[in-house]
Structures are given as structure tokens and as C-alpha cells.
Amino acid sequence: QEKRMLAGKRVLVTAGGTIERIDPVRYLTNDSSGKMGFAIAEEASRMGAEVTLVTGKTSVPLPPGVKAVRTESALDMMEAVLSRLQDNDIVIKAAAVADYRPAEQAQQKIKKKKSELTLQLVKNPDILKAVGERKTTQFVVGFAAETERVAEHAMDKLKRKNSDLLVANDVSAEGAGFGTDTNIVSFFDQNGLVEALPVLPKAEVARRLLTLIASRMEGGKTA
Ligand code: PMT
């Protein structure tokens, strides 16, 4: 019966990296492939959920059985997520959202200068934080990509962004993080560490995460 554990639930998943344009042919992005978010979306659909997958730039085929919404920048992704927030029961933010974007987007390709070129960056809004501020009954799950002091940073993000669960990955560890088919994650809730998992395929990480979410929601969590 585990298979249909999310029957009747609407799940929004974000995946991939955002693209922050410099000019019509150049942009800033990161190494996210979309694999982690796609695995969650596919597994949630298999468990019976109605899944909306909001993607940034990804490098693997879309999973079957989900409604995909393509976005580019953090600002686009924020609009796509917030406009759908109240239609969903669970929000899982596996996307790697750029913290900064170029202050200006040149309308024409920037010409080569004689010497250096300075790019000024401005801060992007935090989508997960905005979701945490607006959530009503949604169960909200954030990710944390860390390279040091993982637990401390994870707990800080969980509290600051008002999430129900946080999935921390040490992206500097072999077999974890960006681009790989496996991940090494720990789950945190408002009380601290829930579980630290060994290296596992991203599909299995997704299955364990969704099983935990389903059991927490069954336990009467409504806000
Ligand atoms: O896509 P893969 O190649 O499979 O790689 C998976 C992954 C490493 C990208 C994934 O497991 C992961 O860790 N995703 C979150 C990456 C990230 O942006 O982490 P962060 O610690 O910078 O952000 C924390 C949380 O806030 C994340 O849920 C992020 O989506 C969210 N955030 C961050 C910045 C921002 N402006 N808005 C956000 O919503």
C-alpha cells in the first residue's frame, strides 16, 4: 500500500538550476542537472500524487506522468511557484536557485571591451522563504546544499525559511549533490536531525523522503 501513499495529494516540486541572463546569449547558472527533483516528482507520481514539476535548466529527460512548467530565472520560478502554492498540499524545493542575478540585462550582445568588464549582481528573492511566509496548510520541504558545517547550516535554513522538513546534502562529498545519480542526505525538522542516510540512488532518496512526508502528514500536521 506504500505505492499509493500520496493518493489525492497535490505535490509541487522544483528542480534544476536557474538561468540569470547577462545578455541575449550569455547567462549565469550552476551545475544542477535536475536529477534530484525529477526523481522526487516521478516517485511522488508513482505514489499516487498529482505532480506539478517546475523546472529551471536541466540536463536529463522529464519524468513521465507529471505536469511540467518550464522557467528560466529565479524571478520566473518564484512566480510559477507562488501562483500555484494554494493549489498544492506539498511543496518540495530541490531546485538550485541563484542567489544573485545581473543588475542589468543587456538588450544587445555585450561587445568585447579593451580591458576588464565588471558585472554588478543584485540579490534574488528567496523562493523557499516566500513560500514559508505564505503557506497555510502546505507541507513545505527545502533542500540545503552545503560544503561545511552541514547540520548547523541546515537547521538555520529550516528555521529562517519556516520549512517543515529540510533535506541537507554535503555537495562536496563523493557520490552526493550536483549531477550525480546518487546522493547522501540527512533529514532535519524543527527539533533537529531526523535521519542521516547513506549513499543511495536519487530515486531511493526520493522514496524515503516522500514516505517520511506522508507519515508526517498522516500524523495530523495541518499548518
Ligand atoms: O539537480 P541535481 O544535479 O540532481 O542536484 C541536486 C541538488 C544538489 C541541486 C539538490 O539536491 C539540492 O541541494 N538543491 C538545493 C540547492 C540549493 O540551492 O541549496 P541552497 O542551500 O542554496 O538553498 C536552500 C533552499 O532554498 C533550497 O531549497 C533552494 O531551492 C531554496 N532557495 C535558495 C535561494 C533562493 N533565492 N531561493 C530559494 O528558494
TrEMBL record:
Keyword field contains Ligase: yes
Positions bound to CTP: D99, K109, P125, D126, I127, L128, F143, K157, K161
Domain DNA/pantothenate metabolism flavoprotein C-terminal: residue ranges: 6-215
EC numbers: 4.1.1.36, 6.3.2.5
Taxonomic superkingdom: Bacteria
Region (Phosphopantothenate--cysteine ligase): 11-223
Catalytic activity annotation: N-[(R)-4-phosphopantothenoyl]-L-cysteine + H(+) = (R)-4'-phosphopantetheine + CO2; (R)-4'-phosphopantothenate + L-cysteine + CTP = N-[(R)-4-phosphopantothenoyl]-L-cysteine + CMP + diphosphate + H(+)
Cofactor note: Binds 1 FMN per subunit.
Family statement: In the N-terminal section; belongs to the HFCD (homo-oligomeric flavin containing Cys decarboxylase) superfamily.
Official protein name in the record: Coenzyme A biosynthesis bifunctional protein CoaBC
Full protein stretch here: 180 to 402 of 417
